[in-house]
């Protein structure tokens, strides 16, 4: 499957910057706001409390994880290579945060696949809850992802 996360590409750099900024870096496992063991840049898969990583390991984990999430995200998009770069990065950040299953089942993807990129971007701000609780950090993240998503889309 194709990828837009080529090493050294602007999209790869933007995706890493976006996710790492929103997630922050913690090298020792902690519980996120809803109690899920998390480490590094928001990695939850296979994480156990007490796990510890170096910064280099966290960066490698993020790069590998973004490629995996990109594959899952692209599988749900009808024309992933036609999605504007800012929207692509925003959708990848969103997928990293909510999971590709939620991404693929979302109204956001339905709108995107029907050609309504602006409508898809506007769906992002509806996803600011975890376990039913609105989290200020998620609200900020979704507002920023929406702005990135809309950047460069003709009005």
**What is the SS-derived class?**
mainly alpha
- Name the poorly predicted regions: none
Helix coverage percent: 40-55%
What's the helix-strand series? Answer: HEEHHHHHEEH
C-alpha-based Rg, rounded: 15 Å
> Could you say which overall geometry the principal axes of the C-alpha atoms support?
globular
Percentage of residues in strands: 5-15%
Q: What order do the strands of the largest sheet run in, or round the barrel if closed?
A: 1-2
Main β-sheet description: 2 strands, antiparallel
| CATH topology descriptor | Lysozyme
Whole-number average pLDDT?
95
Cα separation of the termini: 31 Å
Name of the CATH class: Mainly Alpha
Description of the molecule:
- By secondary structure, the chain is mainly alpha-helical.
- It has one domain: Lysozyme.
- It has helices at 10-23, 55-76, 85-98, 100-105, 107-113, 117-123, 136-150; strands at 26-31, 37-40, 129-130, 133-134.
- Strands 1-2 form a two-stranded antiparallel ribbon. It has a two-stranded antiparallel ribbon with strand order 3-4.
- Strand 3 and strand 4 form a beta hairpin.
- It is globular and about 45 Å long.
- The model has no long low-confidence stretch (mean pLDDT 95).
Question: Summarize this, please?
Answer:
With 155 residues, the chain is mainly alpha-helical.
Which characteristics define this entry?
155 residues, mainly alpha, Lysozyme, two-stranded antiparallel sheet, 55% helix, globular
Question: How are the SSEs placed, and which strands pair?
Answer:
Elements (H helix, E strand, L loop, with lengths): L9 H14 L2 E6 L5 E4 L14 H22 L8 H14 L1 H6 L1 H7 L3 H7 L5 E2 L2 E2 L1 H15 L5
Helix pairs in contact: 1-3, 2-3, 3-7, 5-6, 6-7
């Amino acid at each position: 499957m194709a990828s837009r996360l080529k090493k050294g590409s602007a999209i790869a750099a933007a995706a890493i910057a976006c996710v790492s900024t929103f997630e922050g870096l913690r090298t020792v496992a902690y519980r996120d706001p809803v109690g899920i063991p998390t480490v590094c840049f928001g990695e939850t898969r296979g994480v156990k409390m007490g796990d510890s990583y170096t910064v280099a390991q966290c960066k490698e984990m993020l790069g590998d994880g973004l490629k995996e999430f990109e594959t899952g995200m692209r599988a749900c998009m009808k024309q992933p290579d036609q999605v504007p770069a800012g929207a692509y990065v925003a959708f990848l950040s969103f997928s990293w945060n909510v999971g590709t299953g939620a991404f693929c089942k979302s109204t956001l993807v339905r709108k995107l696949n029907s050609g309504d990129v602006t409508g898809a971007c506007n769906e992002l701000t509806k996803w600011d809850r975890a376990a039913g609780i609105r989290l200020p950090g998620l609200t900020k993240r979704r507002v920023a992802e929406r702005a990135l998503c809309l950047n460069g889309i003709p009005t």
